[in-house]
Specification:
heterodimer; A: 245 residues; mainly alpha; 2 domains; 76% helix; globular; B: 109 residues; two-stranded antiparallel sheet; 5 helices
């Protein structure tokens, strides 16, 4: 039996790490904001750091935080985080073919460390499955950098909570990272239309509780995406018009 | 909230992270996903991003912004411009944040 090369020596590990490095600044800004928010909410430094280390889900943490501080029932806190995380359930369906050959604990382990940035970068790197080891190496590289960027800055935020003024709005750096990633996904007419539909749906359903408008936006964009893919192959003339516009 | 309750809340939230991220990976055998749904899944991350992003860049208290004196709009425009011309995520983040800070701290927008 030959010893397999360690995961971090696999070439895809470096690719994943490099692509995570490009968004690390945005992740870091977000981590900083989450750390400040958790600390200011009165969670205390120990629990704030513990929450970040264990939960590892920025938007769910920020949504659950006020509920925890108000002493809401546990099931309400968990249900809220679950709804904010619903998009991950949809992502996990896309994960399935890539991780099929792994054991269940390994599949869940890989998925747990996959935040939005990592999932999107992965799908761009591997539009279709190639080889399980390359997949895992890429995720390991990407998730390691993302995890460190997130956790280090969260701890920093907890420590610096009283020094960083909120009106600087540094959390916007995280939004800018998302903006760049979103723009990189707009590659053809279908994705542009799907994005526009998602924006309209998210706005129209904004009044829904528990961030359920995100789920509405996903459903609407997927429905429109199917329609575009199956009913109208993009005529070249329209593509040119869009380029000119 | 007592320390015990906080620990329980954090433990539950951790479980929520694991279960939601691994949801369709839990069953041992692959669930049959119809081909059209598999194709449609490629639009899911894009839609989720747009829905998460929209309130951050263009909404205040649940409504679309109704003033031009909002630093986020110019930071977003700068970010888009930089990304389109350079395809650099880092440049997008730095340039957008610079514009945001300049307008926030300089003009109070």
């Amino acid at each position: 039996m030959t010893t397999p090369t360690p995961l971090w020596r696999h070439p895809e590990f470096a690719v994943g790490a490099r692509e995570a490095r490009d968004v690390a600044l945005g992740i870091g800004a977000w981590g900083l904001v989450a750390g400040v928010a958790m600390s200011k909410a009165g969670l205390g430094p120990v629990f704030a750091v513990a929450m970040s280390l264990c939960v590892f889900a920025g938007s769910a943490q920020l949504a659950a935080l006020p509920l925890m501080v108000q002493g809401a029932p546990l099931w309400v806190i968990w249900a809220t985080a679950f709804c904010v995380n619903l998009r991950f359930i949809i992502f996990s369906a896309g994960w399935r073919p890539y991780l099929q050959s792994l054991s269940r604990p390994m599949r869940l382990f890989v998925a747990y460390f996959t935040v939005d940035f990592t999932y999107i970068a992965f799908m761009r790197r591997f539009p279709r499955p190639v080889d399980a080891r390359a997949h895992v190496a890429y995720v390991a590289g990407n998730a390691t950098v993302s995890w460190i960027a997130w956790q280090a800055t969260t701890v920093l935020g907890v420590v610096l909570a009283d020094v960083i003024p909120e009106r600087w709005g540094l959390g916007f750096a995280g939004s800018l990272a998302l903006l760049g990633i979103t723009a990189s996904l707009l590659v053809d007419r279908a994705t542009w239309i799907a994005a526009a539909v998602a924006a309209c749906a998210a706005l129209a359903a904004f009044a829904l509780p528990l961030h359920l408008n995100i789920v509405v936006a996903i459903a609407a964009a997927m429905a429109v995406g199917i329609l575009i893919d199956h009913l109208s192959p993009a005529p070249p003339a329209v593509e040119r018009q869009e380029d000119a516009a | 909230m007592t320390a015990g309750m906080t620990i329980a809340a954090i433990a539950g939230l951790t479980l929520v992270s694991i279960v939601t991220r691994g949801f369709f990976l839990i069953p041992e055998r692959e669930l049959p996903i119809p081909g059209w749904l598999r194709e449609a899944l490629r639009y899911a991350p894009l839609a989720a991003l747009v829905a998460v992003l929209l309130p951050e860049i263009a909404m205040t208290d649940g409504h679309l912004v109704h003033t031009w004196r909002d630093a986020r709009l110019y930071a977003t425009a700068t970010g888009v411009l930089v990304f389109v011309t350079t395809r650099s995520l880092l440049g997008t983040i730095l340039a957008g944040t610079a514009v945001l800070l300049a307008l926030r701290l300089g003009l109070g927008w």
